[in-house]
Design a protein that fits this description.
The protein is elongated, with a radius of gyration of 27 Å. The protein has 188 residues and is an alpha+beta fold. A hairpin with a 5-residue loop joins β4 and β5. The protein starts with 12 loop residues before the first helix and ends with a helix. It is built from eight helices and seven strands, in the order αβββββαββαααααα. It has two domains: 95 residues, no CATH class; 66 residues, no CATH class. The strands form three sheets. The chain has a three-stranded antiparallel β-sheet with strand order 3-4-5, with helices on one face. A two-stranded antiparallel ribbon has the order 1-2.
């Protein structure tokens, strides 16, 4: 193995800590071995003799409690720990996906892009009772503007414009002519 010592899988917290650089100021255990998307990947020997691969914080919780997390539970950092590669169980907490989402929002790690914010705003307006009238639906069917332009104009998702134009929504609107009639007009 060219001078490198084989460590095998992680069996306890001490062997987990041995594979980390311990920051004296923050007490973070920075994982030094394999990662995936910046998050530590740990090969853990379970108490039943099997080996499994876990993310770093989940492995830390397993090794500190001797039990795997319940179904639907996730391990994530406490607010005071800002390191992605930290596997210190004292810096880790567990909860369901809602708790993880609340943590990400509170820590500022879950930031939406401007486009994602706009999409959420449009979707919320649609769900909150913004309705299109029959006249607007008729205008949408007759318009030659793009779906995106019409969606911005009327404050609805682009998929709603498609539904109206395709006849899936506002079926009672039958305009004299439609932009979708070009195929049939050419065939006659």
């Amino acid at each position: 193995m060219s001078g490198r010592k084989y460590h095998g899988g992680v069996k306890c917290l001490e062997t987990l800590k041995d594979r980390c650089y311990v920051d004296q100021h923050t007490d973070c255990w920075h994982w030094k071995l394999s990662t995936r998307f910046g998050a530590p990947i740990v090969h853990v020997y379970k108490l039943d003799g099997t080996t499994t691969v876990m993310r770093g914080r989940r492995a830390a919780m397993y090794l500190s409690t001797g039990k795997d997390l319940k179904s639907g539970q996730v391990a994530f950092a406490r607010l005071e720990c800002t390191s992605l590669d930290c596997v210190n169980p004292a810096h880790t907490t567990t909860g369901n996906r809602n708790a993880l989402g609340a943590y990400l929002r509170k820590s500022g790690r879950a930031k939406l892009t401007p486009q994602a914010k706009a999409n959420r705003t449009l979707a919320a307006r649609c769900r909150c009772g913004t309705k299109l009238s029959i006249e607007i639906a008729r205008e949408i069917r007759l318009s030659t503007e793009t779906q995106m332009a019409l969606a911005k104009k009327y404050g609805v998702p682009q998929s709603r414009i498609y539904e109206i134009r395709a006849g899936h929504a506002w079926k009672e609107v039958i305009p004299a002519t439609s932009v979708f009639d070009w195929a049939t007009r050419g065939a006659i």
